[in-house]
């Protein structure tokens, strides 16, 4: 796992104490990469890796991603420790299930702070290095729910939709600097994402949304039976980065592909239905 055959690549990965982030850290370390791994609990990360991989090339970083100064300090420590930065993976996040009406102001701000502000903080801190060296790869882990929305996932979708827009613009902005951007869109993966201690629920429920309550119960029961294999998912992300090419969007999972295809079909039907009416609001040609 080298860059230009000269040295191990250095990866800065957020959200590494569980799920895809943890699996990425394991595989990267096993492959010889240097890994700066941010987490809310460095102790939990080290415990999860203990006895499984050589952690001599690991820099665990307890970071609040919503704090710009903490993020800048983490990136500075990464450069000081490894002397390089090649790949940035914005993976931190959590699930939230509630109807839009049930979602409080605080819950909205907390989610967007992680899903959007946190990513922006990491990008501001890392892009100067990638831009100056005219190389690098940014991986923003979104979700198929960044392409399509379903009831009960409104807040989570809002954050991922924002990440998708940010990532599209970013990809065009940094292309001339030799920096590539990949948007990863997983479906349901067999991680702890839907576990009760990971999935966030609203502080208050409304009796008016029984279908959302049923959906939440179904998702809690889905835990441990998701179709996606996190080992294969992490390996696919690493392969695309090392290949240095591939499409802007990397869909992971047959369910993700099916959801995205249905969204494209629905959007095409909508565009076809408004093809003749849309121009009616243009100025009349003189």
From TrEMBL:
InterPro entries: KR_dom, NAD(P)-bd_dom_sf, Sc_DH/Rdtase_CS, SDR_fam, SDR_oxidoreductase. It comes from the Bacteria. Signal peptide: none annotated. Belongs to the short-chain dehydrogenases/reductases (SDR) family. Keywords: Oxidoreductase. The lineage of its organism: Bacteria, Bacillati, Actinomycetota, Actinomycetes, Kitasatosporales. Residues 9-178 form the Ketoreductase domain. CDD domains: 17beta-HSD-like_SDR_c. PROSITE patterns: ADH_SHORT. This is SDR family NAD(P)-dependent oxidoreductase.
């Amino acid at each position: 796992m080298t860059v230009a055959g000269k040295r191990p690549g250095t990866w800065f990965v957020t959200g590494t104490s569980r799920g895809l982030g943890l699996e990425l850290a394991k595989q990267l370390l096993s492959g010889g990469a240097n890994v700066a791994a941010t987490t809310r609990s460095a102790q939990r990360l080290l415990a999860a890796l203990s006895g499984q991989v050589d952690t001599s090339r690991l820099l665990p970083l307890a970071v609040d991603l919503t704090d710009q100064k903490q993020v800048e300090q983490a990136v500075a420590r990464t450069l000081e420790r490894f002397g390089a930065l090649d790949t940035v993976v914005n993976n931190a996040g959590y699930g939230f299930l509630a109807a839009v009406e049930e979602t409080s102001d605080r819950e909205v701000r907390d989610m967007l702070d992680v899903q959007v502000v946190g990513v922006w903080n990491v990008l501001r801190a890392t892009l100067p290095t990638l831009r100056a060296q005219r190389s690098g790869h940014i991986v923003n882990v979104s979700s198929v729910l960044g392409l399509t929305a379903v009831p009960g996932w409104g807040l989570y979708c809002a954050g991922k939709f924002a990440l998708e827009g940010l990532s599209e613009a970013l990809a065009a902005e940094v292309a001339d600097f030799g920096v590539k951007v990949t948007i990863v869109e997983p479906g349901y993966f067999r991680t702890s994402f839907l576990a009760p201690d990971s999935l966030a629920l609203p502080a208050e429920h409304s009796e008016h949304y029984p279908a959302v309550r049923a959906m939440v119960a179904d998702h809690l029961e889905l835990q441990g039976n998701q179709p996606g294999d996190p080992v294969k998912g992490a390996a696919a992300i690493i392969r695309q980065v090392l290949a240095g090419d591939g499409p802007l969007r990397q869909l992971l999972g047959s369910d993700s592909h099916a959801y995205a295809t249905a969204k494209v079909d629905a959007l095409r039907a909508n565009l076809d239905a408004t093809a003749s009416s849309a121009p009616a609001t243009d100025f009349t040609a003189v």
